[in-house]
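Risk mitigation, structural track. In case the binding assays with manganese (II) ion fail to produce interpretable data, a predicted complex structure has been prepared as a fallback.
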Amino acid sequence: KGKYCVTLLPGDGIGPEILAVTVDVLKVIGKQFDIPFDFQEALIGGAAIDATGEPLPAETLQLCRNSDAVLLAAIGGYKWDELPRHQRPETGLLAIRAGLNLFANLRPATILPQLIDASSLKREVVEGVDIMVVRELTGGIYFGQPKGIFTTETGEKRGVNTMAYTESEIDRIAKVAFETAQKRQGKLCSVDKANVLDVSQLWRDRVTLMGQKYPDVELSHMYVDNAAMQLVRAPKQFDTIVTGNLFGDILSDAAAMLTGSIGMLPSASLGLEKPGLFEPVHGSAPDIAGLDKANPLAQILSAAMMLRYGLEQPQAADKIEQGVLEVLAQGYRTGDIMSSGMKALGCRAMGDVLLKVLES
Ligand code: NAD
Ligand code: IPM
Ligand code: MN
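Fallback model:
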């Protein structure tokens, strides 16, 4: 009783490395804030395929359903790239998002003053950037029917995916986005391709309608191609962005680089009920897996989001976030955010300096 059941999904590639460091951080924070964590580990992605033949075993989904929160690292890798679609690691990730009804993915991209020099953009362009991408996560072209590779009458193959949104799917993500904007700077930019796509026209109409209920939020619309350009041209114009599944996937990676590295960006995938799932924006980074080179901070900050949005422990979340700022201020860097004069560390050592800061 009174325990916080957290399911840990290490997955593949750098996943186990960054999650191990993060669990150590949570254990220390749990002691300090008297949060009795009960961690359980389960299989997903390539690791699950190797052990059971399926990317999301029923047992894993059940365990997640019975927990208070799910902390996921990353899935995927070359080894499984040639398998049929239903057996790929990515399918497991989509299945857990759908299975837990996690339609709202919050992806914050905040420039930390300590990391301005790690950004590929000029200081004056990125200084002060603070964007929240609200990405729809269980609909759109990722899930629409029909989908598949079919054979036409002439015997040619034809690959099909369908971008579709119902009114209720748009309304529920729009509501999350307006409420998110209300708690931030009160500006919401809805990103679509309404000049070409019917699904986007419906999206724009419903978001506009929903906007009437939020007169305190300044709503604007932007086409996705322009949004990609504006994100690198003048990112400070954005506060909250709401967009569909595929556009959100792409724009959040672009937003990530404003902050210096995708290795810094956490996310929260939320539904109407618990559990939420908390995951870094980046993938399994197979190019650096097993080398102790990964930046664990996106995963650690995802754990902070878990404490804030999933377990109602905002003070514990604050402490982790402050700790991360402090290690960066002390000059510690993993390779992805390295700049001259800073102290280079591996994944584990980065966790250790953070633990030291948290315990001091
Ligand atoms: P990726 O995000 O894994 O890697 C892109 C680049 O960023 C690589 O150079 C990688 O080394 C670097 N990088 C990523 N995270 C890092 C970190 N924490 N520290 C330092 N560097 C980091 O994307 P990709 O290479 O396109 O995909 C690799 C695999 O990951 C694929 O199988 C893909 O499907 C999967 N993927 C999974 C998720 C997820 O689990 N949520 C997200 C994206 C991609
Ligand atoms: C992400 C990833 C996933 C997505 C893939 C791995 C299924 O890119 O979490 O951003 O496209 O949603
Ligand atoms: Mn992605």
